[in-house]
From TrEMBL:
Molecular function GO terms recorded: oxidoreductase activity
Protein family according to the UniProt entry: Belongs to the short-chain dehydrogenases/reductases (SDR) family.
Membrane-crossing residue ranges in chain numbering: none
Native organism: Nonomuraea zeae
InterPro entries according to UniProt: NAD(P)-bd_dom_sf (IPR036291), Sc_DH/Rdtase_CS (IPR020904), SDR_fam (IPR002347)
Short name of any one Pfam family annotated for the protein: adh_short_C2
Protein name as catalogued: SDR family oxidoreductase
Keyword set, alphabetical order: Oxidoreductase
CDD domains, per database record: SDR_c (cd05233)
SUPFAM superfamilies per record: NAD(P)-binding Rossmann-fold domains
Coiled-coil segments: none
Keyword Oxidoreductase: yes
Length: 234
């Protein structure tokens, strides 16, 4: 049984990832700003903007469940605003949650994984990193960074048998879509672009995370897997 730590665990995709990793037989620590009460997980209310809080969550996870062998960096914020109007504080907030926390969590995880003789890190990016997206520049930049960080860490941590991969979701019907003014028009927009003519389910995203985190992917590292119903084909 491996200890898995998932960030942004109270969100739609995070919940599905926690449920799937628990079903896979892992002990799961679920971190989120929302207190959360995911059944079968160690729920840790954690503000990922705070480096000390991240450190404390890793320490508590190790103390209660054992060293972390799987990390899923999934939390994100995505305030929508025209580029020229984005205040610096908002840019800093987006980068603190979507990028700096990924970095810090990976540092803590890699330390604990070294004790175990290996592990798996999965970073969550976004389809928006490929084609860009108006009014989301800071978010899109952090998602490109998640994929690039994946490759850099995969290169550096491979000799420690720590695999680092990335999952890039397309458009899943979650609360994140509330940023779009007309939900029906957005749904049409998505289906016109996807090859598969239906919306993805969070479980379908979680299944790919599970694969990358597990033994079946033991020779896979440094990769980004697109899970988008055939929208962007990389
Ligand atoms: N939903 C989609 O269609 C979609 C598309 C592309 C990429 N993604 C990516 O998938 C991941 C999950 O997305 P989602 O749709 O479940 O989003 P969501 O907004 O439902 O969940 C994100 C979670 O992160 C948490 N969070 C935000 N700031 C935090 C902080 N400071 N400290 C701790 N937790 C914090 C939120 O409380 C929330 O529970 C994100 O990385 C997102 O970029 C989602």
């Amino acid at each position: 049984m491996t200890t898995a730590l998932v960030t942004g665990a109270a969100g739609a995709l995070g919940r599905a990832i926690v449920r799937r990793l628990a079903a896979d037989g892992h002990q799961v620590a679920a971190l989120d700003l929302d207190a959360g009460s995911l059944e079968g997980a160690l729920n840790l209310k954690t503000d990922l903007r705070d480096p000390a809080a991240i450190e404390a969550a890793f320490a508590e996870t190790a103390a209660r469940l054992g060293p972390v062998g799987i990390l899923v960096n999934n939390a994100a914020v995505y305030p929508a605003r025209p580029f020229l109007e984005v205040p610096l504080a908002e840019y800093d907030h987006v980068h603190a949650v979507n990028q700096r926390a990924y970095w810090l969590a990976a540092q803590h995880a890699a330390g604990q994984m070294s004790e175990l003789g290996g592990g798996a890190i999965v970073n969550i990016a976004s389809i928006t990193m490929h084609g860009g997206w108006s009014d989301l520049a800071a978010y899109v930049a952090t998602k490109g960074a998640a994929a690039a960080l994946t490759r850099a860490l995969a290169r550096e941590l491979g000799p420690k048998e720590i695999r680092v991969n990335c999952v890039s979701p397309g458009a899943f019907p979650t609360a994140a879509e509330e940023i779009h003014a007309d939900p029906e028009a957005y749904e049409r927009f998505v289906l016109e672009r996807q090859s598969l003519q239906r919306r993805g389910k969070p479980e379908e995203l979680a299944a790919v995370v599970s694969f990358l985190a597990g033994r079946d992917a033991s020779f896979v590292t440094g990769q980004t897997i697109e899970v988008n119903g055939g929208w962007v084909m990389a």
